[in-house]
Specification:
By secondary structure, the chain is an alpha/beta fold. The protein folds into 3 domains: about 280 residues, Spore Coat Polysaccharide Biosynthesis Protein SpsA, Chain A (Alpha-Beta Complex); about 150 residues, Spore Coat Polysaccharide Biosynthesis Protein SpsA, Chain A (Alpha-Beta Complex); about 100 residues, no CATH class. The strands form 3 sheets. Strands 9, 10, 11, 12, 13, 14 and 15 form a 7-stranded mixed sheet that branches. A 5-stranded mixed sheet has the order 3-2-1-4-7.
Amino acid sequence: MKIDIVIPWVDGADPTLQRERQLFQEKKGKGFASRTQLNGQYRYRDSGLLKYLFRSIDHFAPWVNKIFLVTNDQWPEWLDYSNDKLVKIRHKDYIPEKWLPTFSSNPILLNLHRISGLSDQFILFNDDMLINKPVKPEDFFVNPDIVRDLAIYSVIPADDPFSHLLLNNTMMINKYFSKTSLIKQAPFKVFNFKYGKALVRSFLTLPWHAIPGFFNPHTPQPYLKKTFEKVWSLEGEKLSETSAHRFRDPSDLTDWVFRYWQIQSNEFQPRSKHFCQMNAEKDTRIRVFSKENGGLSDARNFGISVARGTWVSFVDSDDYVDTDYIEYLYTILINNNATMAICSHRTVYSSGKIQVNSYKGSPSIDSHTAIERMLYDDQIDTSAWAKLYPIQFFKNISFPKGRLFEDIATTYKTFLAANTIAVGSDAKYNYLFRDDSIVNKTFSLKKLDLIFMTRLMTEEVEKVYPDLHQPCKRRMLYAYISTLNQMNGVTDHQNIRSQIIANVKELRKPILSDHKAPARDKAAIMLIWVSYPLYAKVWRWYLKIKKGEEIRD
């Protein structure tokens, strides 16, 4: 049995790709969902792990027949293309020309069976996956007709735009299969102890007559090429509709429909839910935990509570870091004999624009300087990420559970606890600006946490450093203006908006006379002083320019 590996890859930073994608986005018109989670810039990011993935396959899975690298004619310079196992595949080599160019992973994956020379059994790897211990063919295929997988039913979440696609997959599966048919045919494949606690998901779906959805682990996925061919023969029209979409669309199907088909066709044997965690058990540096969703603060506090190292850093789930992120932070910390370290970062917008936020100044600063620059938004920010902390800091510091803007109530405390802070000018952290993130989506009264958290911070800072009274005023101004920006276009809460505008106007004189206050703050104050509606319109223009979007209003 020959087993191939398929790796789709895109270099989202490629200027040619960005220009072409922008061109087709503009053709879609104003209603195009390029700012949503379905087509955001982070969908095109390069995790930086591709070279390590190739190395790990070579080292831990030497039995692999061929490795098919699928790209839009983008080829990493460092890759050895003379290797007999490597096969270069361009989109135009297997996707019908009428569906090209495509900027969606769905047409790329739904048509994999068309790749010439691809074996009947293959494993789909994402470019953010690695193998860190030896694996065997039997970890993915029992025989040429049976894959290893998890038959775990699960309700589709209703808080994620991607769930539209999962629902489309599940509706197609329900058209041909019933949940009870698999349970009757292979009950111990559905209710298998290898699934561990995840079995609860399947039990909770029993009241549903139809299949409500599937549990989808982020792991290398074994596929049978005949499954693709079978589903295409039955649902070619629907699959063609998805393949014709240049960008992800809520009506799309994904390659998981083939996975679900293999499960419901009983062409699988149960795999442990901890298949990817087995390597964690062999590598003590990797530990995997499961807990109920309690929000970002709760997750961070939990992570801190089980951490065993001397140092800790935070990476938000949507963001990504350079491969030498920790090494860089630790190096500047040691070189400057510092207590903690900060690196610069990049802001990645959905339009493809990338803004590099580089620090300029002394590589080693004290607590007072760090807090003052943070209050002025002077290349040091309140984010918990892009920093390396001693774990002991968090014996007395925790993130406020149930609050938004939790970093504002926490990061300054680490500055107060530090004697010396190392700051690097190299950007090693990549922050993805999402319009539909918790902080950026539609205004709610929870957004007033920004003002509340900022007030707590400034009051405590002034107790320690009374001379920072003026910078604290500037930070309060930022909280007021930022909250107004969150309310832009909202017709409710007029009394709250009026009070915030009054607070901004009260700070006009002290901020305008402060030579350290950012020019944008002074411009905002003057516009609000003249006319809030005028400011609101200028703000919308400024935000579009900042994100690299076209101004249409």
